[in-house]
């Protein structure tokens, strides 16, 4: 039986491949669980943000409806209503009543203290243009506040007798507004970081961008804002999902593969050696039956039998090496091999050929 050297290699490749498959399955499972939780949290955060935008827009719309009933209430009445709104919703940085020419009629705080200059700010011009084309609240692009921070405006258009009369606007500091919405009291959001963008502009970010593709991005779509919210797990939360288990399983599988293949190899080698010895013993017994009266050195005959057995199993070993181990000369080995020629012809030798001796065996060598 030939020593099948490819079997240990095949076992090594197969078990290593199995380790890779298991490792990938574990990694995908952990990432899928984290992704599902992140997606759920992103949906919750989006609803919180959407609800607050729509709630503030609705509050401004209530002011606008009162204005439209009377084509502009008395300034004192308007100021009282605006003050009550600021008291109930402190997220407003300012509330403004402006005409269709962008002139500020009244505001809280005063016009001089407004965080946005209505006369020159380009974002204000954009929101006036948008408001004059609709009856619904609109959200401005990001605006630069006088404090240097980024803000935005929610505006409610004012119509009377089919004519655009101006708008009521709520001005917000983006960071303060969004921080209030996504505050620490909302435990559904614990462990996550957020970023809010409007077009290419960033309104808010709670942490640096994630290192890997773990973020979920969703549109907010409230009051025509066009905002997008990105949500990703913090490092501590991600660590509870993305564990070291897949790596440990892969390392253990790799070591086990190598160990298993090595054991199979040495088992094959040991089995081959035992087979060679058994065959050599059988040959010696047959030789003894052929002629037990010949005075031949048993050591030389045993060496020739081992050499013959190795040839029969395709494991040709150098004559010099066998002769050295047996303690005989190569000439003695070849002579014994010639003597065993008749017996050798009955054995199938897959590899090599027996050497052709040039002299008859010499007894006693």
At a glance:
The chain has 365 residues and is an alpha+beta fold. It is built from ten helices and ten strands. The protein folds into two domains: 6-177, 2-Layer Sandwich (Beta-Lactamase), CATH 3.30.450; 248-344, Orthogonal Bundle (Cyclin A, domain 1).
What does this structure look like?
This protein has 2 domains: 6-177, Beta-Lactamase, CATH 3.30.450.20; 248-344, Cyclin A, domain 1. The chain is built from 10 helices and 10 strands. The chain has helices spanning 6-70, 75-88, 122-131, 174-181, 235-241, 245-290, 298-312, 319-326, 330-339, 341-344; strands at residues 94-99, 104-108, 138-139, 143-144, 150-160, 163-173, 192-198, 201-205, 216-219, 227-233. The strands form 2 sheets. Strands 1, 2, 3, 4, 5 and 6 form a 6-stranded antiparallel sheet that branches. A 4-stranded antiparallel sheet has the order 8-7-10-9. A hairpin with a 2-residue loop joins strand 5 and strand 6. The model is unreliable at 347-365 (pLDDT under 50).
Q: Give the oligomeric state.
A: single chain
* CATH topology (fold) name of the largest domain: Beta-Lactamase
Strand content: 15-25%
Count up the domains.
2
- Got a strand count? 10
**Overall form:** rod-shaped
**Helix/strand order, N-terminal first:** HHEEHEEEEHEEEEHHHHHH
In DSSP terms, counting alpha (H) and pi (I) runs of 4 or more, how many helices? 10
CATH architecture of the largest domain: 2-Layer Sandwich
Computed over alpha carbons, the radius of gyration is 45 Å
CATH homologous superfamily descriptor of the largest domain:
PAS domain
Name the structural class: alpha+beta
The helix content is 40-55%
- Distance from N terminus to C terminus (CA atoms, Å) equals 32 Å
What is the residue-mean pLDDT, rounded to a whole number? 80
Q: Main sheet? A: 6 strands, antiparallel
CATH class of the largest domain reads Alpha Beta
Low-confidence stretches: 347-365
């Amino acid at each position: 039986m030939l020593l099948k050297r490819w079997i240990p290699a095949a076992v090594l490749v197969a078990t290593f491949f199995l380790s890779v498959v298991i490792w990938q399955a574990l990694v995908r499972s952990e990432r899928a669980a984290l992704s599902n939780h992140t997606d759920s949290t992103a949906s919750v955060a989006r609803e919180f943000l959407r609800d607050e935008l729509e709630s503030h827009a609705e509050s401004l719309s209530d002011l606008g409806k009162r204005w439209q009933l009377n084509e502009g209430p008395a300034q004192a009445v308007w100021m009282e209503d605006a003050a009550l709104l600021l008291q109930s919703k402190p997220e407003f940085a300012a509330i403004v009543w402006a005409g269709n020419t962008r002139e500020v009629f009244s505001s809280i705080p005063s016009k001089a203290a407004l965080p946005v200059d209505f006369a020159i700010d380009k974002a204000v011009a954009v929101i006036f243009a948008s408001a004059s084309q609709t009856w619904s609240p609109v959200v401005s692009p990001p605006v630069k506040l006088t404090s240097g921070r980024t803000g935005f405006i929610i505006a409610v258009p004012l119509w009377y007798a089919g004519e655009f009369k101006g708008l009521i606007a709520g001005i917000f500091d983006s960071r303060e507004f969004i921080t209030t919405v996504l505050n620490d009291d909302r435990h559904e959001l614990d462990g996550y970081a957020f970023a809010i963008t409007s077009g290419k502009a960033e309104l808010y970010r709670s942490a640096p961008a994630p290192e890997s593709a773990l973020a979920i991005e969703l549109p907010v779509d409230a009051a025509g804002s066009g905002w997008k919210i990105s949500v990703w797990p913090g490092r501590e939360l991600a660590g509870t999902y993305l564990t070291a288990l897949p790596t440990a399983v892969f390392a253990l599988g790799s070591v086990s593969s190598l160990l298993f293949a090595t054991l199979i190899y040495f088992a094959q080698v040991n089995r081959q050696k035992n087979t060679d010895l058994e065959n050599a013993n059988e040959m010696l017994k047959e030789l003894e039956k052929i002629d037990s009266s010949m005075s031949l050195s048993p050591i030389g005959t045993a060496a020739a039998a081992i050499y013959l057995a190795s040839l029969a199993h395709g494991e040709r070993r150098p004559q010099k090496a066998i002769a050295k181990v047996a303690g005989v000369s190569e000439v003695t080995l070849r002579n014994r091999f010639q003597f065993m020629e008749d017996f050798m012809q009955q054995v199938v030798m897959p590899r090599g050929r027996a050497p052709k001796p040039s002299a008859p065996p010499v007894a006693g060598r």
